[in-house]
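Weekly modeling sync, notes
Attendees: S.R. (lead), two postdocs, one rotation student

Agenda item 3: backlog of single-chain predictions. S.R. asked that every request posted to the team notebook include the full sequence so nobody has to chase files. The rotation student volunteered to paste the first one in as an example of the format we agreed on. Action items at the bottom.

Example entry:
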Amino acid sequence: MRRFLAAWFETVAFMKANKEKAFRLPEPVTKLSPDIAEKVYQIEMPMYFTDGHFDPHAVDAVKHALIETGHMTTMPENSALYTEIHRTLIKIDLDVTPAFAS
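Predicted structure, as returned to the notebook:
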């Protein structure tokens, strides 16, 4: 779990530090034009945190979208959906240079 989380946070840090590469790398798979891919990047990247916490407002937005699309019928408590216990599994030092920077 520690290695997965470290890799996840490093990936997010890479994507934030390398915007152009972040939205162009998946282009062969997504088939999105560069303009659309950049818009998706601008919308989605702020939702990715590098410290492992969940933004309650973002979670609420997802829950509302799931209700509007009929995937859920009631609004569950956030505590029923996730826990932030994983934050205790990995010590995140945001001052450390990520491996991709070396």
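Discussion: group reviewed the output briefly. The radius of gyration is 16 Å.
Action items: rotation student to repeat for the remaining queue; S.R. to check formatting next week.
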